[in-house]
Amino acid sequence: MQTVFLGLAAIPFIYYGIALYSCLRFFLSARLESSEFLPPVSNLKPVRGLDPEAYENFASFCRQDYPNYEILFCIGDTDDPAWPVLRRLQEDFPDTKIRIVIGSGRIAANDKVAKLARLTDEASFEHLVISDSDVRVEPNYLRRLVAPMADPKTGAVTCFYVPTEENNWVQRLQDVGMLSDFYPGILVAKQLDGVKFALGPTICTTRTHLREFGGYPSMENKPGDDLLVGRSIAACGHEVVLLPYAISTVPDYQSFRDLFLKRLRWLTVMRHMRPWGHAGLIFTLGLPWALLAAAIAPTSGIAAAYLGGYLAIRSLLTLLVGAKGLKQPGVWANLVLIPVWDALATCLWLVSFTRRTIRWRSHDYRIVNGELVPVRPEEVMREFQAGAGGISAEAHAPALHAQKTSGDI
Predict the structure, then answer these.
(1) HSE value, Cβ hemisphere, 13 Å, CA-based, for 397
(2) Spatial contact of 161 and 244, defined as CB atoms under 8 Å apart
(3) Contact between 335 and 326 (Cβ < 8 Å)
(4) CA-to-CA distance for 162 and 248, rounded, in angstroms?
(5) What are the φ/ψ torsions at residue 76 (nearest 5 degrees)?
(6) Which domains are seen in the chain, by residue range?
(7) Rg (CA), the chain
(8) What is the DSSP string of 52-119?
(9) Concatenated DSSP letters for 363-374?
(10) β-pairing, 41-46 with 127-131?
(11) With pLDDT > 90 as the criterion, what percentage of the chain qualifies?
(12) Distance between CA 101 and CA 139 in Å, rounded?
């Protein structure tokens, strides 16, 4: 029986070996393309509320080294705290085509997707770049994202994301989790099954590719829209390209509780969308298995093989992805947090099986048959009536007139 348990405890090492191979192959072979393919681009940004450093995030999209692009924002109404920030953006960057769309015009459980459905309709151009409101980018961002679309086989492009800064140990812990756990898992999935997903902070695609599967209206009541977009485009026979390139995101959590709830939401959604894959995560969690092996066979040799091997291979994997692949500073200093992250990841995985609801932007949802169902439906209707569902031109004539003078809707 002891041999059986020790064999089971060795399974995570097989996964880590595959992860090392997948990461090495990706970062050694992947190349950023330089292309003269520069079609006009519509940047779509659904906004709700104000993220930390929102103005700088938005402004980075106005400083693109790209010949022809527009930026479209969608907010629920002019009472949204993002409204004055967006108006200031228009004033500070008069040469950038910035439009603000008020209201999604839809009643949907997933407010972000409802806004993206309208933004897609409002976009002036075929090529679309979709990004979250907490994203900050470099001037070469559009060139990097759009270049692979020159290949007719490419249906979508996505990329990694890293934090703008690490101000406390919680943010360092999150970064360690991304570099040691999330990204290796992404690259293992790529190696074994190809890229059949997209990462939410940024996606590049076209209207045509979205239209093939019904676009955002087809998923306005579903969670995990980024995963669904990539999966749907791949299912239509197109390639989804994962770039060896990273954008930045501004951390929106300051406490351990914030981080715990955010990651728990992700895992709960994945449990509903990929139940068998979620269950299989138990064999990617090396820390509890190494501790179990040391407890079952408490010898120095077992401790060295399992606990020592676990620490060594996890550190190597983190350095490979963070320092070598994504060129992140300070990765060495955060290696001590790997066991802390893995302990947290194990707890999150266990707790995710007990969750029946998720919390997003102050609202609670159940996931029923793959769809989001508001725990309090009246809140969604109230938002629609207040403006999230669409505002009449008469109700906001002065604001709309101000937008039109800048070439906006």
Answers:
(1) 1
(2) no
(3) no
(4) 5
(5) -65, -45
(6) 2-404 (3.90.550.10)
(7) 22
(8) TTHHHHHHHTTS---SSEEEEEEES-TTSTHHHHHHHHHHH-TTSEEEEEE--SS--S-HHHHHHHHH
(9) EEEEEETTEEEE
(10) parallel
(11) 69
(12) 25
What pTM, to 2 d.p., does this model score? 0.88
Q: Which residue has the higher pLDDT, 113 or 408?
A: 113
Closest CA to 195 of 246, 168, 157, 245: 157
Spatial CB neighbours of 197, under 8 Å, sequence gap ≥ 6: 158, 186, 189, 226, 227, 230, 231, 240
Instruction: Write the CB contacts of 284 (distance below 8 Å, at least 6 apart in sequence).
Output: 12, 15, 181, 185
User: What's the average model confidence in pLDDT over 284-305?
Assistant: 92
Q: Which two tokens stand for residue 381?
A: 């209707």
- Rounded CA gap, 336 and 311, in Å? 9
Beta strands in 140-289 (DSSP E): 154-163, 202-206, 239-249
> Distance between CA 364 and CA 352 in Å, rounded?
15
pLDDT digits (tens, 9 = 90+) for 322-353: 999 999 998 999 999 999 999 999 999 999 99
**CB hemisphere CA count around 328 (13 angstroms):** 31
Tokens found for residue 173: 């812990």
Specify the long-range contacts of residues 280-284, CB closer than 8 Å, at least 24 apart. 281/349, 282/349, 283/11, 283/12, 283/15, 284/12, 284/15, 284/181, 284/185
SS3 359: strand
Give me 80's structure tokens: 């949204």
Residue 377 predicted with pLDDT over 70: no
Asked if residue 409 has pLDDT above 50, the reply is: no
Nearest to 194 by CA among 144, 240, 148, 151: 240
Residue ranges in 205-322 assigned as alpha helix (H): 207-212, 225-235, 256-273, 275-279, 286-296, 300-302, 309-319
- Distance, CA of 403 to CA of 78 (rounded, Å): 12
